[in-house]
Amino acid sequence: MDDLRLEIDDDLAVALRRRAAEHGHSVEEEALNLLSEVLQQAPKVSKAPEGASVGELFRIWREENGGGVDFELPDRSEWKDRPLDFGT
């Protein structure tokens, strides 16, 4: 296991000590639990091959994070054809 040393704001240290006491943990154990919770909820970090294209990176990200994004398209059934205006 690696060691991690942080300098934190006094108010944050007090809040961390209070939270650790509420949960019956040491400050170090509470900090480790908080980091674990946050990192488990974060999107996965891809191990994409070096030199991968943007498209390849997006494909890998999409597979690892559950798909892409769906956009709702506007209803175009009532649009009328109109001549192009080139600003002349």
Task: Give keywords.
mainly alpha
Provide structural commentary.
With 88 residues, the chain is mainly α. The chain has a domain at 10-64. The protein contains 3 helices and no strands.
Offer a quick outline of the entry.
By secondary structure, this protein is mostly helical. The protein is built from three helices and no strands. The protein has a domain at 10-64.
* Strand-pairing-aware structural class: mainly alpha
Order of H and E elements: HHH
- Rounded to the nearest angstrom, the radius of gyration is 25 Å
Separate helix tally? 3
* Ends distance: 70 Å
Helix share bin: 40-55%
**What characteristic shape results from the CA principal axes?**
elongated
> How many DSSP-defined strands?
0
Give the biggest beta sheet.
none
Approximate strand percentage: under 5%
Average pLDDT over all residues: 84
**Stretches with pLDDT under 50, minimum 5 residues:** none
What order do the helices and strands come in, and which of them pair?
Layout: H1 10-23, H2 27-41, H3 54-64
